[in-house]
From TrEMBL:
One annotated GO molecular function: oxidoreductase activity
Pfam annotation, one family: adh_short_C2
Keyword Transport: no
Species this protein is from: Desulfovibrio porci
Chaperone as UniProt keyword: no
Keywords per UniProt: Oxidoreductase
Domain of life where this protein originates: Bacteria
Highest classification ranks of the organism: Bacteria, Pseudomonadati, Thermodesulfobacteriota, Desulfovibrionia, Desulfovibrionales
Family from the record: Belongs to the short-chain dehydrogenases/reductases (SDR) family.
Signal peptide feature range: none
Alphabetized Gene3D superfamilies for the sequence: NAD(P)-binding Rossmann-like Domain
Protein name: SDR family oxidoreductase
Amino acid sequence: MFSREQYILVTGASSGIGRACAMLCNQLGASVIAGGRNEERLAASQARCASPAHWHNEVRDLVADLESLPRWVAGLRQKYGRLWGLIHAAGEGRLDSISYFELAEAKSHLELNFLVPMQIAKGFSDRRNFARGGAMLFLSSASAVYPEKGHCLYGAAKAALATAMKTVSQEMAHKGLRVHCLAPGWVRTPMLDMAIEHMGESYETKEKARYPLGFGEPEDVAWMAAFLLSDKARWITGQNFVLGGGCY
Ligand SMILES: NC(=O)c1ccc[n+]([C@@H]2O[C@H](COP(=O)([O-])OP(=O)(O)OC[C@H]3O[C@@H](n4cnc5c(N)ncnc54)[C@H](OP(=O)(O)O)[C@@H]3O)[C@@H](O)[C@H]2O)c1
């Protein structure tokens, strides 16, 4: 599906959905630039991927210096050449409600789940940094499309991201860059484990009952991401695809 000349930057590649996307793109022939904070987990993923020689780790805490993120992307282009794709999976989950709204926590959540992807999109969409025909893909959430109890801030941040990226898709289409969002429901990753730990076993049972096809696996998201980044999806841009195992 890809060639080794096609470099795909995957953030959040040390865990869950991001890791599955990075492994699959590498298996499908792309060169992967794998971003994350945890060096050991990145190295472990590299050791298990199909072609470790075409997997490059870039350790970085994305909220440490928001201002410099566009320059970080430009630096990656200088190091690896023009980037074909971006899969931005770094993010954090959060269960909350308006009665627990706390301003300082809300600001830091919005930084990671909204301002970081905006800054990375700014860097990536600079004409000098991407290869014509390529694509950016951002992990939104089903909570952005179907608001529900307990996802007040998280759902709003992901909805803001999906709306912003629709606009960016309009601005970038004629320049040769496609823009996508994926909006998964619950996928089995450490993020889901944390939610169950926080809410108790009954939460898992109650949530699972809403999914006719059960919870998703990270690979279920990765296959869709790989397709959208490939030139097989050359006529698709500006969508926020819900992947929800039949849950809506
Ligand atoms: N799992 C779900 O059910 C689900 C559903 C809908 C949407 N999503 C979205 O999908 C994306 C991936 O979620 P996941 O379930 O795969 O989560 P996960 O397993 O908890 O992984 C989160 C990833 O984000 C990275 N990350 C977090 N904070 C970071 C920071 N400050 N700087 C750099 N990297 C950072 C982590 O890096 P380190 O491990 O190196 O710290 C890790 O690789 C998220 O945006 C999430 O909101 C998930």
